[in-house]
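Below is a filled-in request sheet from our internal design queue. Each sheet records the structural input a requester submitted and the sequence that came back. We keep these sheets so that new team members can see what a complete request looks like end to end.

REQUESTER: design group, bay 2
PRIORITY: normal
MODE: inverse folding
CHAIN LENGTH: 327
BACKBONE (tokenized):
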């Protein structure tokens, strides 16, 4: 038998209530005290140590996903500790982040340490390791996480030399109408739907991907890149629907075909409090369906952390071997 579940779906992970409580206790222990700043490397080191004490089923599920993210390229874990009654109002400002240690930040950081290490980009959300994904008044049609119109498919920071390997999205609060759906489309399912010509073109350096709107614009000149790279039978992908430009007519056609393939394999998940989605950003694009914020303090609230499997690779982008990429 094959070691890896290359051709099967990775099932969602349902944590039983006893494990939710265990995880809650470990997370609580990381809150308060003197070192309660999420972005302090000594706090991250504490969270890393706590990973080892998490329930075996969680650690095993995450480690298996890390080895091979399956046909879905994403893993949903249900039943993480989120106490909606104890939560403050949903933040309402753009670029809001979670600097103080709270249970959700501890959960995200422990799991990011299980996948590799957490990371962030100084230019985005002030380089915080745990970021709020919340709707912001006046930014409804913004194509980024502050918006509430449809967010089109993208890889996270696809333009960057060191894109994150994993995007972790932990739901603290759902939207009022329970219609905000995280959409994912895994290349492993989309690829077989593409014509041979489209596949060949997607491997050619005929695309330019700019930074997303959540990054301040820079004037860097970007060389053309392929959309797909690596193994022909299981490639990596880098694209963002609104930030990738096709440079030739055949690239334009291939990009359109790719978009259709993604739509036809897309999965939509309405995250509920305590659900964590882990997206393998190398093989999966993601987005979100539209929803209607009310700006009443109880809007949808997701917290996000990026993780990389090998932090060392970006060492020259991270002063003092910290977690934040400054360029
Ligand atoms: O709102 C969501 O569920 C996803 C938003 C998103 O793409 C992100 O935060 O990276
Ligand atoms: Fe995203």
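RETURNED SEQUENCE:
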């Amino acid at each position: 038998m094959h070691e890896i579940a290359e051709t099967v779906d990775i099932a969602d992970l349902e944590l039983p209530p006893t494990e939710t409580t265990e995880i809650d206790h470990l997370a609580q222990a990381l809150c308060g005290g003197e070192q309660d700043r999420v972005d302090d490397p000594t706090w991250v080191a504490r969270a890393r140590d706590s990973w080892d004490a998490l329930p075996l089923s969680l650690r095993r599920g995450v480690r298996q996903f890390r080895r091979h993210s399956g046909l879905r390229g994403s893993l949903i874990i249900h039943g993480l500790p989120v106490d909606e009654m104890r939560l403050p109002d949903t933040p309402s400002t753009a670029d809001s982040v979670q600097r103080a240690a709270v249970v959700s930040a501890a959960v995200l950081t422990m799991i990011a340490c299980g996948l590799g290490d957490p990371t962030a980009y100084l230019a985005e959300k002030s380089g915080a390791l745990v970021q709020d994904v919340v709707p912001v008044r006046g930014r409804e049609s913004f194509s980024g996480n502050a918006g509430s119109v449809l967010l089109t498919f993208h890889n996270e920071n696809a333009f960057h030399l060191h894109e994150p390997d994993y995007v972790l999205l932990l739901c603290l609060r759902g939207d009022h109408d329970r219609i905000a759906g995280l959409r994912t489309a895994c290349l492993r399912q989309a690829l077989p739907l593409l014509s041979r010509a489209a596949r060949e073109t997607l491997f050619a350096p005929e695309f330019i991907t700019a930074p997303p709107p959540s990054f301040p614009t820079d004037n860097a000149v970007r060389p053309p890149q392929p959309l797909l790279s690596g193994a022909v039978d299981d490639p990596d992908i880098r694209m963002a629907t609104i930030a990738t430009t096709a440079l030739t007519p055949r690239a334009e056609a291939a990009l359109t075909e790719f978009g259709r393939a993604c739509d036809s394999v897309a999965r939509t998940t309405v995250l509920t409090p305590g659900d964590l989605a882990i997206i393998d950003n190398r093989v999966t694009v993601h987005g979100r369906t539209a929803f209607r914020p009310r700006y009443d303090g109880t809007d949808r609230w997701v917290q996000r952390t990026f993780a990389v499997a090998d932090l060392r690779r970006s060492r020259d982008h991270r002063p003092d071997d910290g977690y934040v990429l400054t360029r």
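SHEET NOTES:
- The CA atoms of residues 29 and 110 lie 12 Å apart.
- The two ends are 44 Å apart (CA to CA).
FILED BY: M.R.
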